[in-house]
UniProtKB/TrEMBL annotation:
This is T-complex protein 1 subunit gamma. SUPFAM superfamilies: GroEL apical domain-like, GroEL equatorial domain-like, GroEL-intermediate domain like. Residues 1-23 are annotated as: Disordered. Keywords: ATP-binding, Chaperone, Cytoplasm, Nucleotide-binding. The lineage of its organism: Eukaryota, Sar, Alveolata, Dinophyceae, Suessiales.
Length: 352
């Protein structure tokens, strides 16, 4: 605990260290340069792989800057800023995570002699901003338009980003898969604009066994779930799908509930009431004549019984993201906050 000059009190960790002035500036510069030196050897055509040990004890080999820095545990605030810079680059652009770290490290390095000449940091930053404006002008001069309908031009750009990774030994396999996946999730709006949301609607599923060359892009949704009852249909073509975000089972009350029963018949009535309520819910679902019911929550044995009698297959406890992907595949909108109803779609079939 340290008393401030104006009577304030600072509560600091026992291991914390406080630097001010020129020493703090040099420490921040050295921290940034150290982070840049970690990923420097992973840049370029002769890039080397880094062998990482993840928290679960597995070994990962990669030359992706963001993947490497994601596994590094740092405590220095300037070094944390550098790692956040790589993460922001990956989220906004998807490429150049290593380059942006090395560039930031070099900019910190060239600022060191300027600080020794007693130049104020704001003056140095103003010079960087002028350099940024000049760089943007130069980039506009050397840039050239790309025809998005030309597969060769698009492939050349994507390969420059993806085939620098470890997967380059398989040629253009991964970049071709990336282009096909992007085209699959692309939606053309009525006004002609294209919406491509890779983060939400393009998903990479890893399955053990086989070769990397067996990888392919599925025009649909895949999730690792089985039907809830063995007598339900496992393969349905052109199904009528109901998506639920609510449970088909009794939930415990929010407050503590006590029921006192004096007769055995009263217990049977309680069970019958529970069964009747669940039967009503299932009847409401069966009115829209679905072939498949998918829910994010659970399905009780009673609900399975009534839906099985109606010839409906059920899948339970899927992720919210998978539910959104199925909604996108079936091509319909949300009708209710309780459950989502979708029409027949030829693009979805569930096979166990």
């Amino acid at each position: 605990m340290q008393g401030g000059g104006n009577g304030g009190v600072f509560v600091l960790n026992r291991n914390s260290k406080r630097d001010t002035g020129r020493k703090a500036q040099l420490t921040n510069i050295n921290a940034g340069k150290t982070v840049a030196s970690i990923v420097r050897t992973t840049l370029g055509p002769r890039a080397m792989l880094k062998m990482l040990l993840d928290p679960m004890g597995g070994i990962v080999m990669t030359n992706d800057g963001n993947a490497i820095l994601r596994e590094i545990d740092v405590s220095h605030p300037a070094a944390k800023n550098m790692i956040e810079l790589s993460r922001a680059q990956d989220e906004e652009v998807g490429d150049g995570t290593t380059s942006v770290i090395i560039l930031a490290g070099e900019m910190l390095g060239v600022a060191e002699p300027l600080l020794e000449k007693k130049l104020h940091p704001t003056v140095i930053v103003a010079g960087y901003m002028r350099a940024l404006e000049d760089a943007q002008v130069i980039l506009k001069e050397i840039a050239y338009p790309i025809d998005v309908d030309d597969p060769a031009a698009i492939s050349e750009i994507v390969r420059a980003s993806i085939d620098t990774k470890f997967s380059s030994r398989w040629g253009s396999l991964i970049s071709d898969l990336a282009i096909k996946a992007t085209k699959t999730v692309c939606v053309v709006k009525p006004d002609g604009r294209k919406e491509i949301d890779i983060k939400r609607f393009a998903k990479v599923e890893k399955i053990q066994g086989g070769e990397l060359t067996d990888s392919c892009v599925l025009d649909g949704v895949m999730f690792n779930k089985d039907i809830t009852h063995p007598r339900m249909r496992r393969e349905i073509k052109n199904p009528r799908v109901v998506l639920l975000d609510c449970p088909l089972e009794y939930k415990k009350g929010e407050s503590q509930t006590n029921v006192e029963i004096t007769k055995e018949a009263d217990w049977e009535k309680l069970l019958m009431q529970e069964e009747e309520e669940m039967k009503k819910v299932c009847e409401d679902i069966l009115k829209v004549k679905p072939d498949l019911v998918i829910t994010e929550k659970g399905i009780s044995d009673l609900a399975q019984h009534f839906l099985l009698k109606g010839g409906v297959s059920c899948i339970r406890r899927i992720r919210k993201t998978d539910n959104n992907r199925i909604a996108r595949v079936t091509g319909q909108g949300v009708l209710s906050s309780c459950f989502w109803l979708f029409a027949t779609s030829p693009f979805f079939s569930q096979t166990a």
